[in-house]
Design goal:
This protein is of the alpha/beta class and 203 residues long. It has two domains: 4-65, no CATH class; 73-198, 3-Layer(aba) Sandwich (Rossmann fold), CATH 3.40.50.300. The protein has helices at residues 4-14, 18-34, 38-65, 86-92, 96-99, 114-127, 137-149, 153-161, 182-185, and strands at residues 103-108, 132-136, 165-169, 192-198. A four-stranded parallel sheet has the order 1-4-3-2. The protein is extended. The protein starts with a helix and ends in a 5-residue tail after the last strand.
């Protein structure tokens, strides 16, 4: 005859709650030792499963965003780039600009950490439950041009408008503004976006 613990673990697996099933033995033992109420025990189990799903969802969103690297704000060296105000970046890290659908432009010469900050903000947004999409300006233009060519431009713009954070890397090319479909990138600005722009290049 199976034990209640094993039966519960099987039920959690059937409910597709593997994190709760894994946490069950240790949490049950702790609950007995500390004399938890039934409500507290249930909350602890469900919180474990919720946290696991949120972390898993965050990783899926990070992969879907197609970010060029894995960077965090905590890893950024503010002592190396003293011109960057830590308080400003930390405020951006709260993601208020995403919720307000406001735009942010990271402007500076190569090697100043613009891409690191943009990617880190993108990752933070993914982990906070927001969808993110990253691409260079050239890639965005190519996508929109292809959508226009196949008669899907309005559908594509509507799809992008549903993504809370779009990250556009303008790159180092000063001829960006003269490229075909460069103006179409500005159509993405109805959503919150981050632009990584070289110094001296208007965006």
């Amino acid at each position: 005859m199976s034990s209640p613990g094993s039966e519960l673990a099987q039920l959690f697996r059937e409910l597709k709650a593997p994190a709760a099933a894994r946490a069950l033995p240790k949490l049950a033992e702790r609950a007995r030792q500390e004399e938890w109420s039934y409500e507290r025990f249930a909350q602890a189990l469900l919180s474990t499963e919720t946290a696991s799903r949120e972390a898993s969802g965050g990783q899926l969103r990070i992969r879907a965003a197609r970010l060029p690297a894995q960077k965090t704000l905590e890893e950024f060296d503010f002592t190396f780039q003293r011109s960057i105000k830590k308080q400003v970046i930390e405020r951006l890290g709260q993601l208020d600009f995403v919720h307000a659908r406001e735009n942010v432009i990271l402007l500076g010469p190569p090697g100043t950490g613009k891409t690191h900050i943009a990617v880190a903000l993108g990752i933070r947004a993914c982990l906070a439950g927001q969808r993110v999409a990253f691409a260079t300006a050239t890639e965005w233009i190519a996508r929109l041009a292809e959508a226009q060519h196949t008669g899907r431009l309005q559908d594509e713009l509507k799809r992008l408008d549903r993504i809370p954070l779009l990250i556009i890397d303008l790159g180092r090319h000063r001829d960006y503004a003269d490229r075909p479909w460069a103006a179409a990138v500005n159509g993405l600005l109805s959503a919150g976006f981050l632009t990584i722009s070289p110094a001296g290049l208007s965006a």
